[in-house]
Amino acid sequence: MATVLEIIRGLSQAAANSEYDGCDLEQKIGLKREEGHPVLDSRVIDGFKVRFSGKNMIITYQSEMRLKELHPRNKFENEVEQKFSDIVKFLQKEYKNITKNSISLKPLADADIMVQSTSRVRSWVQATKQYEIPGMGDEVKSNRQTSVRDIDKSYEKQFKDFLDLTSDKRPSNDKAPKNPDTPKS
Fold first, then answer.
1. Is 176 a member of any domain?
2. Strand partners, 116
3. Torsion-angle region of 172 (φ positive above 0: left; ψ -120 to 50: alpha; else: beta)
4. Is residue 95 part of a domain?
5. What is the pLDDT of residues 8-45, one digit of tens each?
6. Residues paired with residue 58 on neighbouring β-strands, in sequence order
7. H or E stretch including 147?
8. How far is the first Cα of the chain from the last one, in angstroms, to the nearest whole number?
9. pTM for the whole structure
10. What is the DSSP letter of 108?
11. 57, 50, 68, 46: which is closest to 125 by C-alpha?
């Protein structure tokens, strides 16, 4: 059984092994930038990144799209979901190549898609999707459990003692008037 650190390192390395724009690797992920000729065709900006939160892995996909590709809503949402499934398939394959172990990623919900217009022709799409990593075990707590802080009573007393050190006395070398903003009468 792999530890939490080994799982996160393996998935991070799998994401790092993804083909970046201009890279000359044989592997295909399913991104738009892999289509066409790299020099003769217009370049499409798209890519993904991963981050971890507790037992979950969050994949963020960003892309540039034309407005005519966005209009059929169901087709567009299905296309983004397909990109996520291609990315997960790639990450699982790379994870197996790196660690010699398999990993399953269970989607928690549909993708959260945000589209922003950059011009009358193009739009910027950013989508995130969360996946649960079943092999993480009970070692990892969720963010809500770890964000609750229990303050030790001794630290609380020390902090109150520090605040009590303040005084309203002015230093002996302070020659400024008490309230310089009020006019003298």
1. no
2. 124
3. alpha
4. yes
5. 888 888 888 776 555 555 566 656 655 655 555 556 67
6. 51, 130
7. helix 143-147
8. 82
9. 0.65
10. -
11. 46
